[in-house]
Amino acid sequence: MSDLTASYATDTPHLPGMSDEIAIEIRDMNKWYGDFHVLRDIDLTVRRGERIVIAGPSGSGKSTLIRCINRLEEHQAGQIVVDGIELTSDIKNIDKVRSEVGMVFQHFNLFPHLTVLENCTLAPIWVRKVPKRQAEDTAMQYLEKVRIPEQANKYPGQLSGGQQQRVAIARSLCMEPKIMLFDEPTSALDPEMIKEVLDTMIELAETGMTMLCVTHEMGFAQAVADRVIFMDQGQIVEQNSPQEFFNNPKSDRTKLFLSQIL
Ligand code: ADP
Ligand code: MG
């Protein structure tokens, strides 16, 4: 084997059986916060274009799991491979993965001192080196997709919560991610604004985007999820199609959870 081939082989951490059809592969992953074992033996394979809803009680590790996928949190054991790139302490790989994975949080995390348009163009201009004019054109396209182009020159504080969250989604999309992670994107919203954000997410799902969504919106799960994953106490307890998950839950923990939220 030449040096080049040898380094290629070790730099390409495809897990056995991993193919181009796979967006995310998590194998035997464990994470601790200090002594606290927060994620236990997580195995999860996400195919390209798959829409996954992650449900489970508060404190079960849902946020930690999706934050591990773009290395906002570090795992200590097992493997996470995103779009063929293994997440290790290698900063080059972390940057590559982050440039392909968009994330939308419960609190919108917009920059308050920048306009909507500036929020959307900041990363494309400074991280992607996209020319300003082109970044603005792209941003306007995504602001139209989330149906708020007329808010482009306002500041986040002048917008409703639902509008701010749609800006946050547009801002993520401006980086042209391959995968979108959502962590309870509607939990901080007044009830009348939840639907407009869910509608935006449903439209995004219809474009074929690979999506992992932590949400308590079980109507959304039923409408768009290919698979629902139920977590409790740091483990994936059950996963199934929405149909089976809601109508035929298997574990007692899932049944208890569903009885509390439905
Ligand atoms: P969920 O999103 O399902 O509510 P989290 O992933 O936020 O759960 O949290 C899982 C558990 O880890 C909780 O018990 C929480 O208190 C704990 N936890 C979360 N973040 C930290 C942290 N940075 N340090 C220590 N413990 C944490
Ligand atoms: Mg959470």
Helix and strand layout, with pairings?
Elements: H1 3-11, E1 22-33, E2 36-47, E3 51-55, H2 62-69, E4 77-82, E5 85-86, H3 91-100, E6 101-104, H4 116-126, H5 132-145, H6 161-173, E7 179-183, H7 191-206, E8 210-214, H8 218-224, E9 227-232, E10 235-240, H9 242-247, H10 252-261
Parallel strand pairs: 3-8, 3-9, 6-7, 7-8
Antiparallel strand pairs: 1-2, 1-4, 4-5, 9-10
Helix pairs in contact: 4-5, 4-6, 5-6, 6-7
The structure holds adenosine-5'-diphosphate and magnesium ion.
The site of adenosine-5'-diphosphate has 11 residues, from strand 2 and helix 2.
Summarize the structure in words:
The chain is of the alpha/beta class and 262 residues long. Helices cover 40% and strands 24% of the residues. Strand 7 (179-183), helix 7 (191-206) and strand 8 form a beta-alpha-beta unit. Mean pLDDT is 92; it is low at 1-13. Adenosine-5'-diphosphate binds at residues 33, 36, 38, 56, 58-64.
Largest sheet: 6 strands, mixed
The number of E-state strands comes to 10
Identify the strand order in the major beta sheet.
6-7-8-3-9-10
Question: What ligands can be seen in this structure?
Answer: adenosine-5'-diphosphate, magnesium ion
| Range of helix content | 25-40%
| N-to-C order of helices and strands | HEEEHEEHEHHHEHEHEEHH
Number of helices: 10
Q: Give the percentage of residues in beta strands.
A: 15-25%
Using only C-alpha atoms, the radius of gyration works out to: 19 Å
Distance between the first and last residues' Cα: 58 Å
Low-confidence segments, ≥5 residues, pLDDT <50? 1-13
Principal-axis shape equals globular
